[in-house]
Amino acid sequence: MSIYSELGIAPVINAAGTYTVWGGSSMSDQTLSDMREASREFVSIRDLQRAVHEKLAQLTHNEGAYVSNGAATGLYLSVAACVQRKLKKPFYYVTKEEVNQCNVACFRSHRNPYDMVIKHLGLVYQEIGFPNIILPATEQDIERAIDENTVAFYFANSTWTAPGDASLETVVRICQKHDIPVIVDAAAQLPPKENLWAFSRRGASLTLFSGGKDLCGPQSSGLIVGCRELTEIITSIGFPNYGIGRMMKVGREELIGLYSAVKQYMESDEDQRRADCERQVALVLDKLASYPGLTAQYSFPNEAGQPIPRVCITMGEDRKGVTDLYEKLLNGSPRILTGLEDNRLYINPMTLKPGEMEIVLKRLTEILEEK
Fold first, then answer.
1. Confidence (pLDDT) at 176
2. β-bridge pairing 222-226 and 182-185
3. Which distant-in-sequence residues (6+ apart) come within 8 Å of 360 by Cβ?
4. 3-21+269-368: which CATH number, 3.20.20.100, 3.40.140.10, 3.90.1150.180, 1.10.10.60?
5. Closest alpha carbon to 51 in 256, 257, 266, 267
6. Would the keyword Repeat turn up in this protein's UniProt record (predicted)?
7. Displacement of CA 251 from its chain's centroid (Å)
8. CA 135 to CA 139: how far, in whole Å?
9. Cα gap 7→142, rounded to integer Å
10. What is the reported pTM?
């Protein structure tokens, strides 16, 4: 009996993507083996952090790196580091009142549920512009938003941000003039692997990635890359130091797990992976082409803007038909998770194991032929 069976939990075949609430991604046998090996020996966490962070910086072509327990924690610690840099004293000694006076500039169109950690830390959002194209943010808007209490600029790089912002290059140019660090939230912006260093080269001070999405590391891990000055401050604030970072524990297993995953990621063949995903999508499109009342189309990029194709299924105006199909796939045997967005069902090969697309297609056609 599997551990999930013992707990009465039925796993799913994930044909939706790297959604955190469904487990993110799957770790490789090599990563699991390395984590198991790490768990059997005792080491100095500080020494291990220093070694892993240095190796990750080298692998990702950055000055510095830090392993956090998730990308949201990465943002929390990054902002805290910017506060310490601004106030020129260790964050441990910064008072609540001093934090409350600090602000983080950001586009109103970039606000999202993940950036709530900025408020939780105690800072104020200095919002710029509007979340639409009626009056896009200008350079003057950015200049006027930055004041003597601004510690950082938060830039969310994602396909779900609303229009109304300015480019990262514009933000960087203005912020560098005012000595304001730019934090880029790119949690789901892998692949391509070059994004691990591309934002730094475009001028970002720190870039945040999820460790448990396409990197296929521990789901409870995150990766911060960027300038050494700030990653060293983050290291001085984060676990195992006392203060706000103590509760953000990253064990030796997660440190080794993410290091192992990034090594494998850098060695992976992106072209081959893309070709395999294209083959799987073509297989589904070909099979579903003859079903009346159903339209299957090629969709690119995927829900997070990653360069991975998907299959998009619609049933005309029959909203109930798409929802029923989603629920039958999810609640059948085997359980199959797909994407459901705006009366469209999506099949994403990104998180499927070898042979699973054929299982998804078999179950899908069974449901369609029930009538």
1. 98
2. unpaired
3. 13, 15, 284, 329, 336, 338, 347, 352
4. 3.90.1150.180
5. 256
6. no
7. 20
8. 12
9. 52
10. 0.95
What single DSSP character describes residue 238? B
Calculate ∠ Cα 45-205-209, nearest 5°.
Answer: 60
pLDDT of residue 293: 85
On the CB side of 103, CA atoms within 13 Å amount to 14
What is the domain partition of the chain in residue ranges? Answer: 3-21+269-368, 42-267
The predicted-structure confidence for 67-89, as pLDDT tens digits, reads as follows: 999 999 999 999 999 999 999 99
Give the residue among 200, 251, 254 at the shortest CA–CA distance from 228: 200
| Other C-beta atoms lying within 10 Å of the C-beta of residue 216 | 25
Instruction: Quote the pLDDT of residue 318.
Output: 64
Q: Which residues in 306-337 are b (16+ Cβ under 10 Å) and which e?
A: bebbbbbbbbeeeeebbeebbebbeeeeeebb
User: What is the total residue count of the chain?
Assistant: 371
Residues 6+ apart with CB under 8 A from 181: 82, 85, 151, 152, 153, 175, 205, 206, 227, 230
Q: Helices (H) and strands (E) in the chain — how many of each?
A: 14, 12
Please list the residues that pair with 314 across neighbouring strands.
295
Give average pLDDT by consecutive 10-residue segment, the chain, 371 residues: 93 96 96 98 98 98 98 98 98 97 96 94 96 92 97 93 93 98 97 98 98 97 98 98 96 98 98 97 94 92 92 82 94 96 95 96 92 57
Tokens of 104: 């983080």
Indicate the fold that domain 42-267 takes in CATH. Aspartate Aminotransferase; domain 2 (3.40.640)
DSSP β-ladder status, 103-107 and 124-128: parallel
Whether residue 25 contacts residue 348, with contact meaning beta carbons closer than 8 Å, is answered with no
| 353 Rama sector, left if φ>0, alpha if ψ -120 to 50, beta otherwise | beta
Which two tokens mark 127?
């919002």
Phi, psi of 311, deg, nearest 5? -100, 130
Is 355:281 a contact under the CB 8 Å cutoff?
Answer: no
pLDDT attached to residue 160: 83
Question: In angstroms, what is the C-alpha Rg of the chain?
Answer: 22
